[in-house]
Design brief:
This protein is of the alpha/beta class. Helix content is 36%, strand content 22%. Bound molecules: zinc ion. The site of zinc ion has 5 residues, from loops.
Length: 441
């Protein structure tokens, strides 16, 4: 307990003799980084005379310091369903297994799943995530407790009815939670153009515009959605979203992998398209058309929920994206580690936290990597070592807002208690069984 108290109080750090890899992938060797009051207070050569007597020193010799990783599309509570539906296609996964269990989920399950997800992400070097789910207040509370930054989009469903009421409840969440401790951001979460009408999407864009926030939506993760949209509305899903005005607000697009040629120009530059290749491969969905001319699209990486991706490591997803991209192109020089790194880091720009920079004045959201490990040594190219080899074992320290949430390779939270609680809730969930399915999609 004593150590824990010290942990949260100790806000000044000096990371000495460390190599920095910035968001552009540029290496800065033998540097000193000072953290104070949750921010990066200074970045200088380690040769400069030290002048920070009160800080705790972290020896960074031989290690690499990067901005935190961001997970740009996930459903954190779904960690409670990890492994409940395996080796099935996407329809069976959702309609037979996930949705019927999800319909009976309780707040305590949401909390247990979120804590498990947040602890896992921090272990992987994630400092912020963009979440899309129900029971948003429970998620916000759990995120604050564990210390991860959270951009939450409470899911809006057309078939749930009273869409104005749903928008109003997101507005209330925004007013009570947005900006809390600088760690929570709230945006609107229309599920998708197949579960929200064009009119409902327009109402969402207007509500987001009024509050000065953005939205987070699922787009074309299955080819049939494109044909159905044309049949129903005379337009493709990206065109429906464009017409509704959602590209006029900062937009996080989950997936969008079946984007058509003519839809590419509709994607605004301050939106991001989040690819979660592990889910696409695992559910046999394929990669759509998104691998063609990736430089045309504002691509970044997420994990989707653990019920489909099993793990919540954006780095693992980035690695898969590089490998799938190279394989599809039949070109080992395509999808370079340096480009993949920039895609990973692009997520910071779509979040309102000001993170993603190793510069004085930026929030101290940082990861220290020890690449002198069995998976990554010797290090010729640190960026390649990260993208092709590193994992949670190489993450030694994680700071979020200057607070250490992983130290010397161990999480500072009670992760064993979190695992026990989630396992207990999962057993109860299986005993309760499947609920009624009211939606099929
Ligand atoms: Zn999703």
């Amino acid at each position: 307990m004593h150590a824990d108290r010290k942990e949260t109080m100790s806000r000044d750090f000096l990371i000495d003799h460390v190599h920095i890899i910035d968001a552009e992938g540029v290496l800065h060797e033998d540097m000193r980084v000072r953290l104070s009051e949750g921010l990066i207070a200074g970045v200088e050569s380690a040769n400069a005379p030290p002048d920070f007597p009160t800080a705790e020193t972290v020896d960074g010799r031989g290690c690499y310091l990067t901005p935190g990783l961001v997970n740009m599309h996930t459903h954190t509570p779904m960690n409670i369903f990890r492994g409940i539906s395996e080796d099935v296609d996407a329809d069976t996964w959702f309609n037979r297994d996930i949705w019927p269990y999800e319909s009976l989920i309780e707040d305590a399950d949401v909390r247990a799943g979120t804590l498990l997800a947040a602890a896992e992400m921090i272990d992987c070097g994630v400092t912020a995530c963009a979440d899309h789910y129900f029971s948003a207040e429970v998620i916000c509370q759990a995120a604050l407790e564990i210390g991860i930054r959270l951009d939450i989009a409470p899911t809006l469903f057309g078939p749930a009815g009273d869409f104005s009421g749903q928008l109003e409840r997101t507005g209330e969440l925004f007013r009570s939670w947005n900006g809390r401790e600088g760690r929570i951001a709230v945006r609107f979460g229309p599920h998708s153009p197949y579960l929200c009408s064009p009119q409902e999407l327009r109402m969402t864009a207007e509500a987001a515009g009024r509050l000065g926030t953005g939205a987070h939506i699922h787009l074309t993760d299955a080819e049939k959605q494109v044909g159905e949209s044309i049949r129903k509305y005379g337009r493709t899903p990206f065109a429906v979203v464009h017409e509704a005005g959602l590209f006029d607000v900062p937009l996080i697009i989950g997936h969008g992998i079946f984007i058509r040629e003519e839809e590419r120009q509709l994607v605004s530059r301050d939106s991001v398209m989040v690819l979660c290749p592990k889910t696409y491969m695992k559910l046999g969905m394929g990669m759509g058309n998104v691998l063609q001319q990736p430089e045309q699209l504002p691509l970044t990486v997420g994990t989707d929920g653990a019920a489909s991706s099993n793990t919540l490591s954006p780095l693992e997803q980035a690695r898969l994206l590089a490998l799938i991209g190279k394989g599809a192109a039949r070109d080992g020089a395509a999808w370079k580690a340096s480009d993949i790194w920039k895609m990973l880091m692009r997520g910071h720009q779509a979040l309102p936290f000001g993170t993603g920079r190793v510069k004085a004045g930026a929030p101290a959201d940082l990861v220290l990597w020890n690449l002198a490990s069995l998976r990554t040594a010797p290090v010729y190219s640190p960026l390649s070592a990260l993208i092709y080899g590193a994992g949670p074992t190489e993450v030694t320290h994680v700071w979020i807002g200057g607070t250490l949430v992983k130290r010397d390779g161990r999480l500072t939270c009670d992760y064993r208690g979190i695992i026990d609680e989630a396992s207990e809730r999962a057993r109860a969930l299986v005993r309760r069984g499947r609920g009624e399915t009211r939606l099929v999609f």
